[in-house]
# Entry
Amino acid sequence: MKFIAFERSKQGTGASRRLRNSGRTPGIVYGAGVAAQSIELDHNALWHALKKEAFHATILEMEFNGQSSQVLLRDYQMHPYKQLVQHIDFQRVDANTTLHMKVPLHYSGEEESEAVKTDKCLINHVVTEIEVACLPANLPEFIKVSLTGLTKGVSLHLNDITLPAGCKPVTHGKKNPVLVAVVAPVEEVVAAPVVAAPADAKGKGKGKK
# Structure
């Protein structure tokens, strides 16, 4: 994805507030051994870009002062209750430096699996993205995961999927985390009907004389 950034000359809280009031979002670009650069972006264009998955998980082309460079979205701050992006951070990409990025998982095929078709199990997507380490050229936009082989009682783990070439998983100490859990359906227990006890025939109709 490509976006346009503009040079931001004025700094400080007041300047940033005036910038937001004019429909711009303040930001910063850092990394790759280059001094940090203050930038500003058109808020409406940024707002729509943030709704796209690729803006969060892929290398972006930033046009700045007539030059194009590769960057990654690293952070952004939203207003507590307004639909307003208050600040955004980008990191420059070095082609020879390993990245650590969270990549979305795109699941498919669960409706064709034995777990769903035959055993009527429920499929729980425990993890929707994983962190990978790779060079910028090997960073995938997303990772496809087929669930057609799911069976009752068997969950899908990280070691069960194949990552794109050049990507290594980063699990932060978890050896083989669960990605998808297969939950067996709960069987309904039908309670036996309650039969009222027959009235005492001997005592029926008796009263005090």
About this structure: The longest helix spans residues 13-21. The radius of gyration is 29 Å. The first strand starts at residue 2 and ends at 7.
